[in-house]
Structure formats: C-alpha cells, structure tokens
Design goal:
The complex is a heterodimer of chains A (199) and B (463).
Chain A lengths: L5 E9 L6 H4 L19 H4 L16 E4 L11 H9 L3 E4 L4 H10 L2 E4 L2 H13 L4 E5 L4 E4 L2 E4 L4 H9 L3 H6 L2 H9 L14
Parallel strand pairs in A: 1-2, 2-3, 3-4
Antiparallel strand pairs in A: 1-5, 5-6, 6-7
Chain B lengths: L4 H8 L1 E3 L6 E4 L2 E4 L5 H10 L9 E4 L16 H17 L2 E3 L9 H8 L7 E4 L13 E4 L2 H10 L1 E4 L3 E8 L8 H12 L7 E6 L1 H5 L2 H9 L8 E3 L4 H7 L9 H8 L12 E6 L6 E3 L7 E3 L13 H14 L14 E5 H4 L2 H11 L9 E5 L3 H9 L2 H8 L2 E2 L20 E4 L14 E4 L2 H10 L9
Parallel strand pairs in B: 3-4, 3-6, 4-5, 6-7, 9-10, 9-12, 10-11, 15-16, 15-18, 16-17, 18-19
Antiparallel strand pairs in B: 1-2, 2-8, 13-14
Classes of the chains: A alpha/beta (199), B alpha/beta (463).
Chain lengths: 199, 463
C-alpha cells in the first residue's frame, strides 16, 4: 500500500446524505476480477445528469470528496473504495461514514476523514465559492486545512501509523503466527469444519 | 459485572490484544462468493501465500448467477469469467465449493445455516454485508471487504476494534400478518440507517424469542441496514433443534450444547444503549423512500417532506419522493406495483415461500404484474417443490426460478426497467439497486403475495 502522509488537492462538494455503495458503484460494475478500471462505474447513475457535480468542469480535477452524512452505507463491496481511488480521489470527508466502508477505505489507503457537520458545511461553501480552493489533509498533524481554516480530526494512532508507513496488514498479522498457532491448539473439537464434506 | 452475549463471544476469540491496537480476532468460518473474492485470491498469489484453513472456508455462487437455464454456459462473458475465476481459485486453494446445479448452491447466507456450519458462539465473516444473518444463531457474524477476505484467507484472523453493544428489546406479541420483516423495518425506521453504527445489536424480548429461526435470520440480516456491525440473538432450544440433524451438526452434540447454553447476556451485564419496541403495536411495514429507514406502516400515507423538521432528512425525503415518483399524502396502499420479487438472503428461506404460497393458493396475480419467486438455495427450491409450492406460484402466474441473489441487487439479468416499481422482500431500496431507474418498496413475504394479487401495496387482510 502507498504511504499516506499528506495530500493537497481541490475538493468536490457532494451535497447528499446516505450515499450508499450502490450509488458509488452499482452491482452491474462488480463483475470484473481486477482491482482497477472501476472509475467508469463511479456514481454512474448520477453521472448521466449533466448537472451532477462530477460533470462540472470546475470540479473535474478534484481529489478530495466532501460528502453528506452516512457516506458508504449498504453493501460491503470494496469496489466502492477502488472506484473512488481509480477515479483519482485521495480522501473523502464526511461527518459520518458507514463502518464497513470506512474499514475498507483505511485498509486500502483512501483516507476517510470525519469532521463535524458544521465543518463539512463550511467546506462546501468554501469549495463552491472557489472550486480551486486547496484542501490539505495532513495525517501527521491530523488536520484538514483550507484558506485560513484548520480543523482537527481524530484517527486512532494504530491506523494512522499503518497508513503513514503504508504497511501491509497481512504482513503485520503474520508476525503473530505463534499466537494464532497457540489459539488454534486450544480450539474446541466440536467447532464445525467445512471439510471433509458431510451430507 | 456480567457480560453481554457479544462480549462473551468476542473475548472467546481474541488471539492477541495489545494496548492501542485492535484485537486480533480468530475467525471460525469464512464464506466466499464470486463477487468479492477474486482480487483476494490474486493478492494471495502475488504474495506467495496459502489459505491457512481451507477447512474453515466454504464457497458458493450466488450474486452473479442466472436463475434460468442454469446448466447452460453463462451468456454474459464477463459474468462467466467471474464464476470461472471462483471455481479455479477454489480448486487451486483446496476450498469446498457449491456450484450451480449442486444441491447446496444458493445465497451464501442461506447455505451456511442449512448445512449446519453456522453455530452458536462462532465468529463468521463473508465479503457481503448481510453476513449478519448468521447472528440469529448467537454468533458474531459480519460483512468485510475484499482486503479483509484476503486477510482471513491468509491468517484465519482479523484485526478488529471491539464494537459497542446495543440491546433492542421487542416485547409483546405480534398480531396476525405481522412478521419478522415488519419488526426489523420498524426498528430501522426508528433508529435510522446510521443508528446502529459502531454497535453489535442484540435482539431480545418475548417477540424475538417467539420467532422461528428463519424469522430470527430475517431480523439479524437487516442489522446492517441500521448501520450495525452485526446483530445477534441468544441461542435457545429452537436454535439447538434447528442445528440437530444438519450435515455439519457437531458429532459431540452434548459438548457443543453445553457451551452454547452459556451464551446469553448475564443479568447484571450492561449495554451501552438499550431500546424497547412494543410488538403489540406493530403493523405490516413498507418503505416509501430510497433508504431502508424511510419506512411506514402499510396503512399510512406517503409523508410530506415539508413536515420533516430535520433539514438533512427533509432534503433526503424530497429527493426520495422525486426518485420514487410519489406524491406526498398518497395512501401507500394506492401505490401500483409492476413487479413482485420474493427471495433473497432476507426472505428466501422455505418459511418465507410457505407464507407467500399460503396467500397465493388458488388465486391469480394481477394482470400485467410480474412476480419472480427465487428460492434462497437449491435445497430450499427442492423442499418447496416437494411441498407443491412451485405449483401454487406457477398456477398463480408467477415465475418459478433457480436459486441466487437475483433481483435483490440486479447484478444478473433479473432487473427492473427504468421507472418500473417493485414490491420486494429483499433488504435495500437504494436508487437503482434492482436496476437502473428502478423503484423499490421493501415488504414482507405476506405483503409481497397480497400485493401480487391486488396489484397495489396490500396486506393479506385486504384480500
């Protein structure tokens, strides 16, 4: 995974709540067996509307998506994270994220930043009045900065460290193989197994 | 102080815990399907890693499979490649797979319980958010993304932060015609799509205890629609009886059951949040909007956004009515339906088919209305045919299909057309979920069947 320390880019204001993962990428786009090429499916239904924010020239180069509350509800499809990344987003800001989406994003290096709703509203206003507003998301200081505004956000130390180092989660866990072996040695024998097959 | 059920199961699975780090949780079972696994297996190959426990892993094909002509080659080459990829990965990594045509093929959350591999006290994951279904057995079961699927394949563990606990007490007795689906839709309408965020919900109370295992699965299934990490119900004699005799029931059943009997929330345990619902007052419930929290009793009318105080909710309601093509104040029962979908991991089990068939028996569906009946698994389909339910559906004018996720998510050809309106026993009424431009009303199997007959949203009491 690529390291995430700090990103500066322009924003895209998505003034909608409950943006579910079926909106981020509909199921018909999930047939691919790769991790890339999902950008064409991103918000595909909404993108057929010329007024949709991603279709506006001034927001086309945005890399920080600023969305309404309950972003990423619904399906666990990690394709939603890939679609946002494939399109070019580096960070998503919202006042509330669905749990699974947030977990997926932080595993995959798409930084999801939780700011209070008032701060999100202020950011929307700033981006809409000047789409070129530079937004800096800084993991080192755990802050979002634009114009003369700086807002702090919370992220647990462990996840922050993992993102800043760009560490592979599986590699980290495999360092504890001894603990897994020890746990398995004590598992009760009545726990079910899928093999051998019983009918 | 005592512990909640969720805390007991969580603590029984901690492989390693360290200050400032998520717990490393052991996973007892991973369920695999075609849509969220290909990239995980690729990751393993790239890193030269193996599947640690093929014997705690099982795969089936469900999301992207056709529900007609299942033994012919899949027409869509992209879909075919996805299914073939799963089959090849299962073969390469030694994982058990139930493919199209196999008796145990079907929606992954129907297959686990019917094989008896879903048991109390387990941790169960799948790259699918409706994994919460398995919580009905008193397990911690939750959906994960593809990176986590790979993590579990490689290590049989998952680093996870401990969720908070929420109790939802449903006390009282359901009226005739009110079902598990109505309970969960009412809960989501009350706490909202983010109400459960960060929590494991334990459903409790007399109305929950009264539910069958199928009904409990329906309730736990939609925990994710309230934003919860998982939902579960303490196991009891009904749970044990359900597992007994299933292919993968424990050989030493007594030993397993004596552990299962310890799986309840202690009397002096404390939940972070407690909510109580009165089952006596519940009515058949239906959604009017584009998220599962936008629901009302069937006797109500489409709400007027202008009367909603919260500006965010008001805006969402306005957008929802526009998308759904509905006028505020219209009685829900006046809404005409084009397609009825009976199936999914929420309501595609045998009990759901029986309930719908009991309403449809000897009747015809409305002219021009299309009804799709998609059993949750091939085994459910066979059982239904043994009971003659297929005939009831076919005689009524419905289409009797093969097992899969089908129109729940509109990934295979079973989709709504633009502007088409469904009454669906599935779990999500998101914009375009069942097909681009399609409009979804979530309902119970009883309401689905009555709606199919009348052509407008209806309950059996309206017939």
């Amino acid at each position: 995974m690529e390291k995430f320390i700090k990103h500066t880019g322009s924003g895209v204001p998505l003034r909608r709540s409950n943006v579910d993962t079926d909106q981020i990428i509909p199921a018909v786009y999930l047939k691919r067996v790769t991790r890339n090429g999902f950008e064409d499916g991103l918000f595909s239904a909404w993108r057929s509307d010329p007024e949709f924010v991603l279709n506006k020239e001034e927001f086309k180069s945005g890399t920080v998506l600023v969305a309404g509350p309950e972003f990423g509800t619904g399906s666990s499809r990690e394709h939603a994270v890939w679609a946002l990344q494939n399109y070019g987003f580096k960070a998503v800001i919202s006042s509330r994220f669905a749990d699974i989406f947030r977990g997926n994003s932080l595993k995959g290096g798409l930084l999801t930043v939780i700011l209070p709703q008032e701060a999100v509203e202020a950011l929307w206003v700033a981006i809409e009045s000047n789409p070129a507003t530079a937004i800096t998301v800084d993991l080192e200081t755990r802050t979002v900065t634009y114009n003369d505004v700086t807002v702090a956000f919370e992220l647990d130390d462990y996840t922050r460290w993992r993102l800043m180092e760009g560490l592979d989660d599986i590699g980290l866990t495999l360092k504890h193989t001894d603990s897994i072996d020890a746990f398995e040695a004590k598992r009760p024998s009545y726990k079910p197994k899928t093999l051998p097959i019983r009918v | 102080m005592g512990k909640t059920l969720a805390e007991k199961i969580w603590e029984d699975h901690i492989v390693r815990s360290a200050a400032g780090e998520p717990d490393l949780l052991y996973i007892d079972l991973q369920l695999i399907h075609e849509v969220t696994s290909a990239q995980a297996f690729d990751g393993l190959r790239l890193a030269g890693r193996q599947v640690r426990r093929p014997d705690l892993t099982i795969a089936t094909e469900d999301h992207n499979t056709p529900t007609i002509d299942i033994l012919k080659p899949i027409a869509d080459p992209v879909s075919k490649l996805q299914i073939d990829t799963l089959r090849n990965n299962a073969k390469e990594f030694g994982i058990r797979i139930h493919s199209l045509g196999d008796a145990d093929q079907g929606v992954v959350h129907v297959v686990g319980p019917q094989l008896g591999i879903t048991q109390p006290g387990m941790t169960i994951v799948c790259g699918d958010s409706h994994t919460s279904t398995h919580g009905a057995f008193g397990a911690i079961a939750f959906g994960i993304g593809t990176s986590e699927v790979e993590h579990v394949l490689a290590t049989q563990t998952l680093p996870s932060s401990r969720p908070k606990t929420m109790a939802i007490n449903v006390e009282g007795t359901l009226k005739t015609g009110v079902t598990a689906k109505d309970i969960i839709l009412a809960i989501i309408a009350q706490i909202g799509t983010g109400g459960g965020q960060g929590y494991i919900i334990e459903y409790r109370g007399s109305a929950i205890r009264e539910l069958s295992m199928e009904g409990r699965m329906t309730v736990c299934n939609m925990s994710i629609e309230a934003g919860a990490r998982a939902g579960l119900i303490a196991p009891d004699q009904k749970t044990f009886d359900y597992i007994k005799g299933k292919p993968h029931a424990p050989e030493d059943f007594a030993a397993a059951q004596s552990y299962w009997e310890t799986l309840f929330t202690d009397a002096d345990a404390k939940f972070d949040v407690e909510i109580t619902l009165n089952a006596d007052e519940l009515e058949p419930f239906v959604t009017w909007g584009t998220n599962p929290g936008q629901g009302l009793p069937l006797n109500a009318s489409v709400p007027n956004p202008a009367e909603i105080k919260d500006s965010e909710e008001r805006g969402a309601a306005e957008r929802a009515l526009q998308y759904m093509g509905l006028e505020a104040g219209t009685p829900l029962k006046k809404i005409a339906i084009d397609t009825v979908f009976l199936g999914s991991c929420t309501n595609g089990r045998i009990e759901d088919l029986r309930a719908a068939a009991s309403v449809l028996e000897g009747k015809k569906i409305a002219p021009k209305l299309r009804m799709l009946v998609v059993p949750g698994s091939e085994r459910v389909r066979q059982q239904a045919m043994k009971e003659g339910l297929d005939k009831v559906f076919i005689d009524a004018g419905a289409e009797w299909r093969n097992a899969g996720c089908s129109m729940c998510l509109g990934m295979n050809p079973d989709q709504l057309a633009v502007g088409e309106r469904s009454a669906s026993t599935s779990n999500r009424n998101f914009e375009g979920r069942q097909g681009k431009g399609g409009r979804t009303h979530l309902v119970s199997p009883l309401v689905a069947a009555a709606t199919a007959i009348r052509g407008t949203l209806s309950s059996p009491a309206d017939l």
